[in-house]
Amino acid sequence: MVQLADIEKVAPGVESLSTEEHEALQRFTLLWTLFEAQILGSNASVRKISEKVERIDPEIINGDWLTEHLDYFSNRYIDGGNTNYRFEKLHLRTNDNPDLVRAVLTGDNADPASQLIGCLTIVYRFRNNFFHGIKWAYGLQDQLENFTHSASLLRKFLEKVPNGI
């Protein structure tokens, strides 16, 4: 168990996070900062994510490396063909293109570039919700798989996509 008694005083519940949760948060934080610095020029936005993805050779995106993450996000945010309460908790803003994310998750948009943009938009919202405190409102509960999948997607992206796209 990670010793965080000093942080527990200001962040109740952090000390009770499992080793796996701590590792997932650390991996996500490290990989997000690399992604933002190397791919987004240290200036993250959905617009910038979209611009970068649209420059990627379609053959890179067409591999099956995205499928696992798209399936996870779809299963998490779609029930019976419609978005659920968890989708609303992403706090997608107008400039986050929620219609694209919704269409990707429901399967109405099967374009691989759009799917990657949709998944990275969700990861971006995790980043904002985590780094700006919304996730702390409920003690990071129910977030292990979110951060695990997000970190895995970022790692795969950084491995597959050439620097400076």
Following the backbone from N to C, one meets helices and strands in this order, namely HHHHHEEHHHH
Strand fraction: under 5%
Output mean pLDDT: 89
N-to-C span: 40 Å
Oligomer: single chain
Judged by helices, strands and strand pairing, the structural class is mainly alpha
Helix content: 55-70%
- Total number of beta strands: 2
Number of helices: 9
Our Rg estimate from Cα atoms comes to 16 Å
Number of domain units? 1
What does this structure look like?
- By secondary structure, the chain is mainly α.
- The chain has one domain (45-160).
- The protein has helices at residues 5-8, 19-38, 46-55, 58-61, 67-77, 85-88, 98-106, 112-131, 144-160; strands at residues 78-79, 82-83.
- A two-stranded antiparallel ribbon has the order 1-2.
- A hairpin with a 2-residue loop joins β1 and β2 (82-83).
- α7 packs across α8 (112-131) and α8 crosses α9 (144-160).
- The mean pLDDT is 89.
Break the fold down into its secondary structure elements and pairings.
Blueprint: H1 5-8, H2 19-38, H3 46-55, H4 58-61, H5 67-77, E1 78-79, E2 82-83, H6 85-88, H7 98-106, H8 112-131, H9 144-160
Antiparallel strand pairs: 1-2
Describe the structure concisely for a colleague.
By secondary structure, this protein is mainly alpha-helical. It has helices at 5-8, 19-38, 46-55, 58-61, 67-77, 85-88, 98-106, 112-131, 144-160, and strands at residues 78-79, 82-83. The protein has one domain.
